[in-house]
């Protein structure tokens, strides 16, 4: 190779290298929307359908939730809770609780949740997630906070139609994968591809004892989905996340995510709307059902004393006093 050819070849490689860095590099995001207190009533709807995961739950509408104080808003808090005063008749649909969906849908960007308390207690199954409003699993689902009985640590999962698998190495995350095929729906397992956070503070009683914390989820069609979590008093909590008035946030400040679901053209192409479409943001709290109900025996809950999960939920209202979400703020950022 002649010298000037050599130089242009090296230059070409260098530029290719730089552009590959730009693709994988951390981005800056600007504030687009935020929800505090009664702001949730404007932009989220209360859903009252039967729980698709077969929980022992009766999702109530906005008026019922507010008049029974199952939902409450102040200047700095938004609360959603289970009924913890009434015995549920066996003929009823289940224990009163709340499930809300955002009116709008969201795609690429960063969702920051500042949450002080999550629902705990035997039989509970809370979740904070995003999902296609279409015909699941087409368009996908991203579970950000999920677990059962207030026990164990947090699990994040991705659910898609066939055609999305996670690499077995090089995922750059501190959590532990529980499955690498994200396929969900008829004929397959519904567990998707999960990642569990090994930190006890990430879920349940221990999360609440730590005064809650911050869940940050980045979605990028080309780079994939990543989630970070910091307990409220974590000395490594980045200032752009803890500051409620941050108008810009910087991914480069956040270190390694605990869960990472990379997008790649061959294994999981998140630019494909069949796998990942615009999503609603959802909070819910159900009881028993497909997950909490199926692990009820041997979970350390009252199943070990002979109660069925549904009977426990129906007959022990006091056991649901801590079954509530208390949210400080939810923010949505888009790439700057
Ligand atoms: C409603 O719930 C909120 C939040 O838990 C609480 O502060 C308030 O006292 C409750 N109101 C009534 C009337 O019970
Ligand atoms: C999770 O993964 C880490 C390494 O990434 C490993 O040290 C740890 O033992 C794993 N924990 C569990 C519960 O598998
Ligand atoms: C993001 O915010 C910065 C600082 O205010 C501003 O300079 C930039 O134009 C914003 N980007 C977009 C896309 O709005």
What does this structure look like?
This protein has a single domain, classed as Jelly Rolls, CATH 2.60.120.200. The chain contains 7 helices and 19 strands. The longest helix is centred in the first third of the chain and has 22 residues, at 3-24. By secondary structure, it is α+β, with helices and mostly antiparallel strands. Mean pLDDT is 93; it is low at 5-23. Residues 30, 248, 336 line the site of one 2-acetamido-2-deoxy-beta-D-glucopyranose. One 2-acetamido-2-deoxy-beta-D-glucopyranose (NAG) is lined by residues 69, 72, 79. Residues 22-300 form the GH16 domain. Residues 1-26 form the signal peptide. Keywords: Signal.
CATH hierarchy: architecture: Sandwich
Tell me the Rg in angstroms. Answer: 21 Å
Order of helices and strands: HEHEEHEEEEEEEEEEHEEHEEEHHE
Q: Could you tell me the strand content as a percent range?
A: 25-35%
CATH class category: Mainly Beta
Per DSSP, the total helix count is 7
Number of domains: 1
Helix content: 10-25%
Kindly report the average pLDDT value: 93
Biggest β-sheet description: 9 strands, antiparallel
Number of strands: 19
Shape: globular
Our measurement of the CA-to-CA distance between the termini, rounded to an integer number of angstroms, reads 42 Å
Indicate the CATH topology: Jelly Rolls
Instruction: Give the cofactors and ligands.
Output: 2-acetamido-2-deoxy-beta-D-glucopyranose
Unreliable sequence segments: 5-23
Structural class by sheet pairing and helices: alpha+beta
């Amino acid at each position: 190779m002649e010298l000037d050819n050599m130089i242009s070849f090296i230059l070409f490689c260098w530029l290719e290298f730089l552009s590959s860095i730009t693709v994988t590099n951390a981005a800056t995001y600007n504030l687009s929307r935020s929800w505090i207190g009664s702001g949730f009533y404007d932009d989220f709807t209360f859903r009252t359908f039967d729980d698709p995961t077969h929980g022992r739950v009766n999702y109530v509408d906005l008026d019922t939730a507010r008049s029974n104080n199952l939902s409450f808003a102040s200047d700095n808090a938004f609360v959603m809770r289970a009924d913890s005063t009434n015995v549920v008749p066996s003929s009823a649909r289940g224990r009163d609780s709340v499930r809300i969906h955002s009116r709008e849908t969201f795609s690429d960007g960063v969702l920051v949740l500042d949450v002080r308390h999550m629902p705990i207690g035997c039989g509970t199954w809370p979740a904070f997630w995003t999902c296609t409003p279409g015909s699941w699993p087409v368009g996908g689902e991203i579970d950000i906070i999920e677990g059962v009985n207030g026990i164990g640590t947090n699990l994040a999962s991705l659910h898609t139609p066939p055609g999305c698998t996670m690499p077995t190495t090089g995922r750059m995350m501190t959590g532990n994968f529980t499955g690498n095929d994200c396929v969900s729906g008829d004929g397959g397992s519904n567990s998707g591809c999960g990642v569990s956070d090994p930190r006890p503070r990430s879920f349940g009683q221990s999360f609440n004892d730590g005064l809650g914390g911050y869940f940050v989820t980045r979605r990028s069609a080309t780079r994939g989905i990543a989630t970070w979590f910091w307990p409220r008093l974590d000395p490594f909590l980045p200032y752009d996340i803890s500051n409620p008035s941050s108008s810009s946030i910087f991914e480069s400040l956040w270190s390694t995510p605990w869960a990472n679901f990379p997008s790649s053209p061959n294994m999981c192409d998140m630019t494909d709307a069949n796998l990942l479409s615009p999503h609603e943001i959802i909070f819910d709290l159900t009881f028993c059902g497909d997950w909490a109900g199926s692990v009820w025996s041997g979970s350390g809950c009252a199943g070990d004393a002979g109660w069925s999960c549904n009977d426990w939920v129906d007959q022990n209202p006091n056991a649901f006093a801590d079954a509530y979400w208390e949210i400080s703020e939810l923010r949505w950022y888009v790439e700057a």
